[in-house]
Amino acid sequence: MAELTDGGPAAHHSYPCEQCGANVEFAAGTGTLTCPYCGHAQDVTPVGEAVREHDFAALAARQRPAPPATQEYRCGTCGAITTSDHLSQKCGFCGSPMVAEVEALGLVEPEAVLPFGVDRASMQGALQKWVRSRWFAPSALKKVVSAEQAHGVYLPHWTFDAQTRSDYTGQRGEHYWVTETYTTTDSEGRSQTQTRQVQKTRWYPASGTVARAFDDVLVAGTRRVMPEHLAKLSPWPLEQAASYQPDYLAGYETLRYDVEPEAGLDVAKQEMAPVIENDCERDIGGDVQRVHHVATSYSEVTYKLLLLPVWIATYLYGGKPFQVLVNARTAEVVGQRPWSAWKITFAVLAALVLVGAIVWAVVASQDGGTASGVYSGLSLLGDPVARESVDLYAGSRG
Ligand SMILES: [Zn+2]
Ligand SMILES: [Zn+2]
Predict the structure, then answer these.
(1) How far away, in angstroms, is 331 Cα from ligand 1 center?
(2) Domain-ending residue, one of 339, 363, 383
(3) What does the CA dihedral 226, 229, 235, 236 come to, rounded to 10 degrees?
């Protein structure tokens, strides 16, 4: 099935079709490699091993030579040579899928992959729905839907598991009520003494220890896609991840990680911090809490490198590139969107014309002495602010 091209700097897998000599690609959502020309389908080579996490301390202690910045692929179909820093891609000349032999590059090997589940047609459907629900989007955004250039890309992510133990200090606040007296002046100018209940808080020192086990804290392993956009693609059905198998990458681009695992763990700890702080607050108890200091120790830290499938469509608007991402498992769409200046201007003008028409109607009817009818019409709009401003306007006319 998949053939490993050996020798030279470019050991990689290629995917000739068993039936017609073209190439098979991983077909989203099917679990098979399918030939786009003759339709021949062959099953992905099964991997017997289960997805597992690896000891982080052992990785950190290991010397990891810097991998080559790029590698050469020699296309098994047309013989063309492509230089690239991707782990998989299509040949730039004939479109044949090429998947790197990761081990040969000295990179941390992916442990798991969530194979593409949303195919190109379904991705376009999801984009169409998304574009239709954008207000004031320029027509250029509609072009993103027909985006033939949308890429199917596997993005590297780290997941971390850890046992944590945190010593904290802080304060526990307990509410109590006091009766306060105050004076008011009534309508006839007499001063009156009254009482009211006021809530106060008494603070007590607090300290203690909390423990929590974290599982699969997800951290982006690439800086090429904005992390805030990636975060919005969550949640991912991580339990459906399969053991890494190059076949799943055939026909797609796969980015190398450019966030080293050590840096990834730092980000994971930042993700854990608010959860731990929450545990501290619950441990402190009382009505309100202050956490002043938390010292956390991490043990049994394990990691895995995971590839997640994303459709990436880019379009130009006003000379600037905008990016839209589609989660290729859940079809969730996250994107940058420009605002159409003329559509907003038009909407504002239309609103002003409407307000003007209402004001004119009110003024005209008051001149005619039938204000009540107009007020009932206005209250139908259910907007007391509009009504107030109309009153002012009418009043200022004297
Ligand atoms: Zn074929
Ligand atoms: Zn080629």
Answers:
(1) 29
(2) 339
(3) -50
